[in-house]
Amino acid sequence: MSSTTFGSRLMGGLQQLGRSLMLPIAVLPIAGLLLRLGQPDLLDIAFIASAGEAIFANLALIFAIGLAVGFASDNNGAAGLAGVIGYLVLDAVLAAINPEINMGVLAGIIIGSVAGLLYNRYQAIQLPEYLAFFGGRRFVPIATGLAAVALGVAFGVVWPPIQHGIDSLGQWLIDAGELGLFVYGMLNRLLIVTGLHHVLNSLVWFVFGSFETASGVVANGDLNRFFAGDPAAGRFMTGFFPVMMFGLPAAALAMYHAAPKGRRAQVGGLLLSLALTAFLTGVTEPIEFTFMFLAPVLYGLHAVLTGVSMALLHWLDVKLGFTFSAGAFDFALSYGLSTNGWLMLPVGLAYFALYYTVFRWAIIRFDLPTPGREPESAGPAVAPTPLGERGPAFVTALGGASNLQSVGACTTRLRLVLENPEAIDEPALKSLGSRGIMRLQGGGLQVVMGPIADGVADEIRQALKQGGAALDSGNSAAHRTTPPINPSQPTALPAEVAQRWMAALGGDANVRRLEAQAQTRLRVELADGSRLDGEALEQLGCRGIQSLSGNTWHLVVGAQAAAIAHSLRA
């Protein structure tokens, strides 16, 4: 395997990890809200605080479930069950071997990832008839439990030195003071380009550092320790507040004022919504992608200023925390637990002035094509796409159904794998609300949509299920990755190959319906889905298997889809 291929696969795996982490992290706001509201200085209701504590106390298990579902190709709940089984087994094995081992959230992340990958590998496994009940998805929790035993034994031996290394790294980062915080803040912003900042954040917020509460509960990571009452916690969160609540909204205002007066009304609504999103919720990627690639030097300065903010607020002994991000909602929620939290406001106002001045000067001085300054389109204005039609419109803009191999989303981005990334229609994506596009290796594409990304991904998947090949009808020949197939004249497969395909589908009697769709896929309805042999299909060249509903499957087979369908129906 070439280093390029290995690097692509490693990057793809890390990006999938970052995307999958968003599902368990999404439960933290409600946990923090309940925990905070139940405190004596607010509602003083013990059971509400206990409800929030229950989530924080079981984060490792929650991460195991979330990672398993996130890694699963179809996000099936069977993967989540496998994650639970795997975590419980791993935790019990480690406790039996060495009670001193505490993997914390990392145990959930590791076993959840393993469960999701095992689901993808064995969801369609076919067992002998006398064991058929345990085939397919039912086999995945069994396989995960066995894998957890093996991992538990291995980690029981190798984890203590690894744990020592993690603790040492975390302690160095904490002891490094302003320097460590500056490096972390800068890396946090720079890694947004690849989406790997979620991985870094998970270590800092959920692993590094520990604090034992009065009741004997040990909290790990800056976020957990802050809400557990650790007075030293919050340093890895505080510095984001001036940037997200003040700095980036000021950048949006600078872009508005830098736009020609005749076009300010055109971009004002967009920039206002981006600024409010950043200020209230701390979701900043939509703003950042308006200048990340157009003015990389400006984005680099933004990363440096984030690091400076982290170091400055630590130097001022300000401690704040958040459950989701550094927006006004989380500021209000955590203020009662803060140390010198009021100092964030004057620092934030200073950052507002700094960002506004720097951004407006740079945009005008270097004539940067920020919103409102880009060349005007020569074509007619594009009307907003109605909500119910958004999914099909995205499929078409992404090159058609046959071009989409994988559809996923994280907090603010669509994460896609395409057959041909060059087939996308960027102006159409922009008209649909795209804030930016990143092309990755291996056909990967990320489309920045803001907080609506997950909903858009659901609409795309729904459109793919309902629309099929019809969604390819608008694509030009230049956008096709394979020549058009004439269904009336498909090339028949050799008889032996056709027999192998039929056997992999469980035999002729098991195939109720089979048809080619979207030029590169087979839609197969089986009598018994557990008899589908995923390994045999992979050997025959099948690139992907997706379970739709019941015993209906999509097989990604490439340009030979029509030939396979014709041969198996003959």
From TrEMBL:
It is found in: Cell membrane. PANTHER family: CYTOCHROME C-TYPE SYNTHESIS PROTEIN AND PTS TRANSMEMBRANE COMPONENT (PTHR30009), PTS SYSTEM N-ACETYLGLUCOSAMINE-SPECIFIC EIICBA COMPONENT (PTHR30009:SF4). The keyword Nucleotide-binding does not apply. Residues 471-490 are annotated as: Disordered. It comes from Vreelandella alkaliphila. It is a multi-pass membrane protein. The chain crosses the membrane at residues 21-39, 45-71, 78-97, 103-119, 139-162, 168-187, 199-219, 239-258, 265-283, 289-313, 320-337, 343-363. Keywords: Cell membrane, Kinase, Membrane, Phosphotransferase system, Sugar transport, Transferase, Transmembrane, Transmembrane helix, Transport. It comes from the Bacteria. Residues 8-375 form the PTS EIIC type-1 domain. InterPro entries: Glu_permease_IIB, PTrfase_EIIB_Cys, PTS_EIIC, PTS_EIIC_1, PTS_Glucose_EIICBA, PTS_IIB_1, PTS_IIBC_nag. GO terms for cellular component: organelle inner membrane; plasma membrane. This is PTS transporter subunit EIIC. One of its GO terms (molecular function) is protein-phosphocysteine-sugar phosphotransferase activity. The active site is at C410. The keyword ATP-binding does not apply. Residues 388-470, 495-570 form the PTS EIIB type-1 domain. One of its GO terms (biological process) is phosphoenolpyruvate-dependent sugar phosphotransferase system.
